[in-house]
Amino acid sequence: MPTESGGLQLEAVSHRYGRELALEGVSLDIHAGELLTLLGPSGCGKTTLLRIIAGFIRPTEGRVLLEGQDITGVPPHRRPVNTVFQRPTLFPHLDIFENIAFGLRIARLPKDEIKTRVTEALVLVRLENFAGRRSHELSGGQMQRVSLARALVNRPRVLLLDEPMSALDMKIRLEMEVELRRVHRETGAAFVYVTHDQREGLALSDRIVVLNEGRVEAIGTPADVYAAPASPFVARFVGDANVIPVEVIALNGESATVKLGGVTMATPARQVPDRGPGWLVVRPEAVRLSAATATSETPLAGTVRDLAFRGSSFSYRIEVPALDEVFKVEQPAELGPPHELGSEVVVNWDAASCSLLPRSQA
Amino acid sequence: MQETTQRSPLTAAITIVTLLFLVVPLAIVVLFSFNDTASLSFPFSGPSLRWYRDVFSSFEFREATTNSFYIALTVSALALLLGTLAAYGLSRSASRRRGLLGLLFFLPITLPGLFIGSALLLFFSRLEVGLSLFTVGIGHFLFVFPYFLLIAGAAFSRLDPALEEAAADLGASPWLVFRRVTLPQIWPILVGATSLAFALSFDEFVITFFVAGSDSTLPLFIWSSMRRTIDPSINAISTLLMAVTLVLFALGFLLTLRNQRRSGYADEAAFIGEER
Q1: In this predicted complex, what is the ipTM?
Q2: Which candidate from A92, A102, A166 shows the least CB-CB separation from B265?
Q3: DSSP per-residue codes, B166-227
């Protein structure tokens, strides 16, 4: 099912519920055919943004453009945009075939074409044998696959997915992720995926948009946003991070010298314009642990306070008194047996994999 | 959900006695409507349809029955139309307005028929509206509407608004959403509520008594013929009235039940809170 796709733009979109500001000046360019994730904690405005794109909410300010055409005031039933909702919204009085055919029947397509397209859609979500079933006979994962087929059968320019997997258990979610990537490749429509689950966001998307308190905090490919977080919030929300307060004492082009505890070290600097207080973002997997010896007298010495086995790695919490920090550390399991609870270790990291941020925001 | 409860023999006895108390008088009426003789006491002299023949040959009976059907049909059709609109509107309006309007709509249910009847009588005479089937219709509508609204309102509020949103998202205009998604889910309840409205109107007596003027309805006819003589044909009429009412109540009940069973899935799906 090749879908003709086009870009969707949001221009300075703001929305208020009464006095409460849900979105503030969000501008976004959704490319044709991409899989874009809106990622953020609950209450960050991501669902509001999705409902604005679908047409259920008219934004207080700003414009929504589809292929250059202003659709801000167009009601949902006249937009070439379809939604897969958070929980299954299959029509209980119709069987699966008729559920999927709903949009095509509304559009008064010829019967043969409806039959062909619904059958194609059923094949696409691998539910060929379910056409005659009723929704209550399906599992949660199957219902959401029907929802997906019901939306895609209309060949929308943009498909919106509002946390469609939040009600499914982990195993089915992982399977659905694979399915969703395949369906996205096969249809070529732009997918806008809303989630608060950063793992899902990183795994699925071409690009992610991190939202916080109604504002866009970061846009980029998952790898970029992860490697160079735009703010401490993004660092903590996308992946796991140690965000350490540091003092920038010297700047030298692409690198900076920072002081933390009693230690000075060089670190790459992309976003720090000036000397002064900053944040150093250290990913848990960039940290190396070594056993403390009697002679090592480094302020980066600490004590193992927690240890959990994660299959391919060990996950630690290391209390470092000199920095007044508890470090989150991931060590690959193949590095050998873990450091025991309560043992003394030295914390180290690869400076190149850290990010330095100005301390203007928390 | 299945529960097993211990039932004491006393509970069973009370239930049986209560049911007998409710059903036996009705059964006697039905039985004697088929009795061959005019006596209203045992022994039962033999089956016959003579009272039914008598009844159907009476012009007054036929006129009263026609009137009753006419009023009940009009009133229940109006209740269906206005009640559906009101219930849909109430279920989609802000909670504060819904509370106040709902209270006003349901007020007539709490008032005794005697009060509604006398109030209407005063009202109509003030406005110098002559008493007729028209005023009976108004009185019945007043009486029947809250019941319809109660049932239809409950049905609408059980519907999942997310389904209507999904339909709009799939391209359905507000009218098509109502016709293709909302109505198919609740029509059995609407039909049920309409037949209940019909039954309520068909055997309404108290309000009718006040506002009927010189016109007659079936319950009024029964009452006036009983004032004259105790005639076994009353049994036949009552049996007919009962049959009509029972059939309609049963229809309404069955349709409501069927709909509840079918919508079982909606409860399962409502397990997640939605973020705005």
Answers
A1: 0.80
A2: A92
A3: HHHHTT--HHHHIIIIIHHHHHHHHHHHHHHHHHHHHT--HHHHHH-TT---HHHHHHHHHH
